[in-house]
Amino acid sequence: GVPSNEIFAILSSIPEAEKFANFWICKAKLLASTSTFDVIGLYEEAIKSGATPIQELRKVVLHILQDPSRNTEGITPDSLGAETNIKSMEELAMKMECGQAYLPQEERAQVTATPQVTKAEQDNHPGIKLQIASIPRMNGMPEVQDMKLITPVRRSTRIERAVSRYPEMLQEHDLVVASLDELLEVEETECFIFRKNEALPITLGFEILES
Question: DSSP letter string over the chain?
Answer without folding.
Answer: ---HHHHHHHHHTSTTGGGBHHHHHHHHHHHHHHS---HHHHHHHHHHTT-BSHHHHHHHHHHHHH-TT---TT---SHHHHHHHHHHHHHHHHHHHSGGGGS-GGG-----S-----HHHHHT-TTEEEEEEEPPPPTTSPPP-SEEEEEEEE--HHHHHHHTTS-GGGS--SEEESSHHHHHHH----EEEE--BTTB---TTPPPP--
